[in-house]
């Protein structure tokens, strides 16, 4: 069987970062090659931004924004802005921690 739609519920959540990154790339290639429509549920905004063509952001059971990743950056919803800024803040904190570790 060749499904046209794939439902994935937190598919990469319990994986280590290296495996998650590799499988994400491999799934994206498979998705393109088979022309699949994929509905992926995730709480990982980084995964959503890197893997999705379109994202629906939900809050309290309601869709508060939807669109392509770049379109979401123009959304006026404060919750969406906070979600989008979180991966960057985490990367900045990680860089600061690593810089401190290498300096000490």
Automatic annotation (TrEMBL):
Xref: InterPro entries: ABC_SmlMolc_Importer (IPR050093), P-loop_NTPase (IPR027417)
Q: Does the keyword Hydrolase apply?
A: no
User: Which keywords has UniProt assigned to this entry?
Assistant: ATP-binding, Nucleotide-binding, Transport
GO terms of molecular function: ATP binding
Q: Which SUPFAM superfamilies match?
A: P-loop containing nucleoside triphosphate hydrolases (SSF52540)
Specify the domain of life of the species encoding this protein: Bacteria
Q: Does the keyword field hold Plastid? A: no
Q: Which PANTHER family match?
A: SPERMIDINE/PUTRESCINE IMPORT ATP-BINDING PROTEIN POTA, SPERMIDINE_PUTRESCINE IMPORT ATP-BINDING PROTEIN POTA
Recorded protein name is ABC transporter ATP-binding protein
